[in-house]
Each structure stands twice: as structure tokens, then as C-alpha cells.
């Protein structure tokens, strides 16, 4: 039995090492390629760069407008996360801790939203915004909100991102809030705290692992989203990083400027790597923290 256990552990470690290498090797290759000059790409692709050719990043940031796309992505992602948390945290707390008429119906609708893929509703969203624009242009607000106000609007894009992420976020947070003992709320009510203060001062801090998890997952989703951003953001100055990266890829094929392309890929990856490094400790903590401990 001990020999079988050792063999099983060796097999598990081998699988983990293979999976880690399958991720690390492509990432390291992209980083190395971003520091190469064009002639180096026609040599051994696995050869280390002769020097740190940082002009690729400068060229991608300025000439390819990756800096502008980067700021657009930061703005849209930040606004989307703020809107999402402002909606999902109170909704999750109410669904988990309170009883009211229609609760089961709302929970069922939110669970059904888990099965709706954003890619399937891009065209209906675009047509809805287009028709709303027509109504605005024909109404009394045409002088203030005329034109394609709901298209090429970073706030609208962030709002749609948040709306599509609400079902998953509420589902995850509701399960976590439900696992926390009611004794904490009872103690807060005895001290004179209302529902809002109890949620902000007690429940949300206790749900920190779950909150960080949904922030990370939704950050990756918003940051890397392509189809909706491509459809709604037709203005070149308001495109996000994934859309700008595709444009950079097409330009690199024509000009054979691969260093700039890989530099653009690194610019896209760096925020996600930094985000993961900052929250990995909280992510590895048990998701069931909370409840009575004494």
C-alpha cells in the first residue's frame, strides 16, 4: 500500500510539473521574444535575446497606440468592477440572510443567468443600444445626448460587463454569506448596528476571500473580453487592449515587426500577473473562513 501511495504521489507531481511547464514555457517565450530585434526572429526561435531591445515596448506603446488602449482597458475594467461589487455585495447579503416574498424566483433567475454566454447576446445588445440611440436622437435629450451616445461609451461598456457578471458573482457570494454564523449579526444588532452597518463592518470583511476571488475572476474576464468591445467600441481612440492587440497583430503580419507584437502581448499580460501576485495569498486561504470559533 505504501509503494502504491508513493507511485500515486510521483504521478501527481509529474502531472503538476508538466502542467506548470506548459504554462511557463509559452509565457517565458513571449517575454524573450519581446526583447528581440527583427533579425533575431529569423534565427533560432528558442535562442535568448542578444540584448534587451526595449524599443519594441516603446514602439508598441506609442506608435501602435497600445498606451491609449491600455488606459481604456484600465478605465473600463475598474468601472465594471466597482459597479459589479456595488450591486452584487448587497444583493448577495440580502439573498443569503433575509427572507422575503419572491426570493426563490429571484434566486432562480440569477442561477439561470449563469448559463448565458456573453458571446451569444452581443448582437441583441448592439441592436438594443442602437435602437435606444435612435429614441434619444428623436427625443428632447437629442441636444445633450445626441449621436451614438450609447455606443463608443466606456461607461456603458463597463455597465454591460458588470451586468453579465452579476449572476456568477451573486451566486458565489451568496453561498459564502450563508455559511457565516448568525451569531455575528445578532451581536451587531445588540450593539445597535443596522443592516447596512452590519454588512459593511462585519459581513463583507469576513467574506474577504470570496470578494477577492470574484474580483480576480471578473478582472480577468473584463480585461481579456474581445467580442463585445469590438462590436460596441468602433472609435479608434476608445478601443480596449484586446481589440488593439488584434490590430497590432494584423499590422505586424504586413510589416514583419514581430518584436512590437510580442511587446504588446507582454503589456496585456503584465496587469494580470501583477493582480495574481497581489492576491494569491488570499486565494489560497480556505473559502470557508468564518463561523463560530469558540
UniProtKB/TrEMBL annotation:
The keyword Transmembrane applies. GO terms for cellular component: plasma membrane. It is found in: Cell membrane. Gene3D superfamilies: MetI-like (1.10.3720.10). CDD domains: TM_PBP2. PROSITE patterns: ABC_TM1. Keywords: Cell membrane, Membrane, Transmembrane, Transmembrane helix, Transport. GO terms for biological process: transmembrane transport. It is a multi-pass membrane protein. The chain crosses the membrane at residues 12-32, 69-96, 108-129, 149-173, 206-223, 261-279. Pfam families: BPD_transp_1. Belongs to the binding-protein-dependent transport system permease family. This is Carbohydrate ABC transporter permease.
Amino acid at each position: 500500500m505504501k509503494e502504491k501511495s508513493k507511485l500515486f504521489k510521483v504521478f501527481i507531481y509529474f502531472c503538476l510539473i508538466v502542467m506548470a511547464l506548459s504554462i511557463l514555457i509559452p509565457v517565458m517565450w513571449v517575454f524573450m521574444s519581446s526583447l528581440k530585434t527583427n533579425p533575431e526572429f529569423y534565427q533560432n526561435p528558442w535562442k535568448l535575446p542578444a540584448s534587451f531591445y526595449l524599443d519594441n515596448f516603446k514602439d508598441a506603446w506609442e506608435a501602435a497606440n497600445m498606451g491609449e488602449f491600455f488606459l481604456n482597458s484600465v478605465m473600463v475594467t475598474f468601472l465594471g468592477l466597482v459597479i459589479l461589487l456595488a450591486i452584487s455585495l448587497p444583493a448577495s447579503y440580502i439573498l443569503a440572510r433575509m427572507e422575503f416574498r419572491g426570493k426563490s424566483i429571484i434566486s432562480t433567475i440569477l442561477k439561470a443567468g449563469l448559463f448565458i454566454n456573453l458571446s451569444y447576446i452581443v448582437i441583441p445588445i448592439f441592436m438594443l443600444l442602437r435602437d435606444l440611440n435612435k429614441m434619444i436622437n428623436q427625443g428632447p435629450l437629442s441636444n445633450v445626448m445626441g449621436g451614438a451616445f450609447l455606443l463608443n461609451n466606456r461607461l456603458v461598456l463597463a455597465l454591460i460587463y458588470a451586468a453579465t457578471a452579476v449572476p456568477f458573482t451573486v451566486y458565489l457570494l451568496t453561498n459564502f454569506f450563508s455559511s457565516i454564523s448568525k451569531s455575528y449579526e445578532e451581536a451587531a444588532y445588540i450593539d445597535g448596528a443596522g443592516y447596512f452597518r452590519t454588512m459593511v463592518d462585519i459581513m463583507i470583511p469576513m467574506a474577504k476571500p470570496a470578494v477577492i476571488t470574484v474580483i480576480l475572476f471578473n478582472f480577468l474576464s473584463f480585461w481579456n473580453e474581445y467580442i463585445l468591445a469590438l462590436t460596441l467600441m468602433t472609435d479608434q481612440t476608445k478601443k480596449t487592449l484586446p481589440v488593439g492587440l488584434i490590430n497590432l497583430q494584423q499590422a505586424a503580419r504586413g510589416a514583419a515587426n514581430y518584436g512590437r507584437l510580442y511587446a504588446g502581448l507582454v503589456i496585456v499580460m503584465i496587469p494580470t500577473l501583477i493582480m495574481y501576485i497581489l492576491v494569491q495569498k488570499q486565494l489560497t486561504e480556505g473559502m470557508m473562513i468564518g463561523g463560530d470559533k469558540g
